Backbone:
């Protein structure tokens, strides 16, 4: 008798590793992990065709918690590592994840250039507006008056970035803001980000109940962006500027040539440089 075997369906849990997360109870990062695994299962991407690169921080531990290829890298250097990987292995789906400190402070320069370079990858900033791993210092997305401590008496006194505004100014072609309180919405957003050709930026509001317990109220403050996604950068800039950094949705999406070294370009043989610089 002919046996027809049903196709093996890949499930979100298949993308999780055997390592149990050590995030604090209630940390938003659990929901980011779930959203990533749901998005990968929806897209039916084989584990061996995906890589998740991260920096350093509580959020950056995420690479170890998945079963796809991973690299838990160096603080602020996840995007640089990812760019190198994508240049060498263009067939891989490359995801990058880390904290607001990792991506916007020490890694801020890499972020700007990743936006304008537009290599095909998805970057998730798990934004808790604090340095969680190092016990609660102000980050570039922390309000100026938050965090009265010996290090920052009365708060840092420095105005925060709006990450979406920064991404737009730097030339990102896909800008979204998600929330861990809506993991299914976040998963759908990640599917759109992964499918977008080019650099997709997904700022994810991910509460840190340990150092910012007041963020547990985000579920009452976060709302969906009222407008449809725009491809007009001026309109996007106005909307992002007028927003309080708490509205979720795909804010901006446009088509820009994707940068892939070696694709459609001539590649210089390194030995040619040796001749040029010979004394
Ligand atoms: C080069 C370097 N500088 C500083 C540190 C210390 N450090 C580790 S994690 C971190 C910040 C973590 O904050 P964030 O990136 O926002 O992630 P979270 O822990 O909040 O998820 C810092 C400053 C480091 N590991 N390496
Ligand atoms: S310190 Fe904050 S960011 Fe880090 S695991 Fe705990 S709740 Fe999450």
Residues:
């Amino acid at each position: 008798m002919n046996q027809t075997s049903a196709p093996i369906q890949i499930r979100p849990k298949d993308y999780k590793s055997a390592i149990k997360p050590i995030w604090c109870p209630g940390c938003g990062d659990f929901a980011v992990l779930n959203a990533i695994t749901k998005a990968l299962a929806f897209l039916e991407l084989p584990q061996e065709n995906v890589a998740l690169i991260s920096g350093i921080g509580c959020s950056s531990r995420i690479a170890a918690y998945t079963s796809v290829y991973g690299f838990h890298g160096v603080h602020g250097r996840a995007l640089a590592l990812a760019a190198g990987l994508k240049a060498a292995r263009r067939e891989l789906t490359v995801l990058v994840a880390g904290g607001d400190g990792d991506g916007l402070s020490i890694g801020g320069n890499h972020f700007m250039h990743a936006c304008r370079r537009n290599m095909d990858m998805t970057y998730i900033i798990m934004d808790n507006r604090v340095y969680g791993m190092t016990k609660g210092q102000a980050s570039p997305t922390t309000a100026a008056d938050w965090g009265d401590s010996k290090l920052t008496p009365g708060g840092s006194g420095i105005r925060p970035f709006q990450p979406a505004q920064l991404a737009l100014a730097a030339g990102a072609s896909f800008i979204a803001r998600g929330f861990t309180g809506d993991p299914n919405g976040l998963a759908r957003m990640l599917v759109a980000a992964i499918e977008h050709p080019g650099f997709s930026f997904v700022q994810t509001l991910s509460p840190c109940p340990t150092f910012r317990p007041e963020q547990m109220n985000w579920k009452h403050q976060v709302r969906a962006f009222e407008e449809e996604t725009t491809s007009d950068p001026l309109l996007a800039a106005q909307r992002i500027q007028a927003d309080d950094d708490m509205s979720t949705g795909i804010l901006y999406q446009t088509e820009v040539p994707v940068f892939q070294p070696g694709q459609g370009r001539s590649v210089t043989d390194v030995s040619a440089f040796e001749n040029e610089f010979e004394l």
Summary: The longest strand covers residues 93-99. DSSP finds nine helices and eight strands in the chain.
